[in-house]
Amino acid sequence: MKEIKLGDNKIYLGDSKKVLQELPGESVDMIMTSPPYWALRDYRNKKQLGLEPDFNEYISKLCDIFDEVKRVLKKQGTCWVNIGDTYYSKSGNDFKDDRLRGHKAIECGLARANQARGLGLLPSKCLTLIPFRFAIEMVKRGWILRNTIIWYKTNCMPSSAKDRFTVDFEYLFLFAKNKKYYFKTQREPHQNKSIARTRYRWNGHREKKSSFEGMDISKMCHPDGRNKRAVWTINTNSFRGAHFAVYPEKLCEIPISAGCPKNGIVLDPFFGAGTTGLVALKQGKRFIGIDLNASYIRLAKRRIFDGGK
User: Fold this and answer.
1) Domain range for residue 155?
2) How far is residue 59's CA from residue 50's CA, in Å, rounded to a whole number?
3) Same domain (yes/no): 272, 150
């Protein structure tokens, strides 16, 4: 494990689970992360997550990491996880990354799954339901699932599939460690029809009053907007120099604003290009990042120093 300090912030080079085991308990305020998806990309590291022989093993290993995440998270903390799905293929031809086609570990796992019963058996072309399997296992391990947020991507990559619709969204799960947790309400503009519907409400006066006195203040719209909905329209964006998936800053801005107090610490156990750390700094918060790949950490450092440019 190698520690890199950037002022009050830290980046660790190493295996996420092992690094987390070295961190003190209840020391971070929130988690914002996106783990490697199963069978979608080969990051060229023997210790990487996502190339397990079958998805059940992937879910188990991933949730083992989040067991340690839960330990280092403060009692009032929240954990936000962006995770995507993939299609099951007996041949491996549906895998997104060409380098995964014929990958020995996955190929072996697919063959084994084809012979298995129960959850291991999926028909070819079927969604593996990774996000839901992950969420269910997290709840079994003591997490409280508070929201399933839909990240709707208006500029998603077109699909070559001719027998299904193009997938233009991903999931973002909000987990809490305990029933009572830190959460700063996020608001968005009211719809015009909502404003019109609540503009005037009778407050019980029979005699004629001025328009202001006739209003029921408790029925009026909140001046800062309505409580934010759980479908977020956020475009994907590319980052120069990155040859792997980078989630957009806007996807981090809302969770970090909602889940981390001022001067709090945001942890990302799959740091990648450092988007989580970059957004945390912009909001006046601190961060801890962990990644297995030294080249990604160099990329993240450069990006943070450049302010995300």
Assistant:
1) 2-186+228-305
2) 9
3) yes
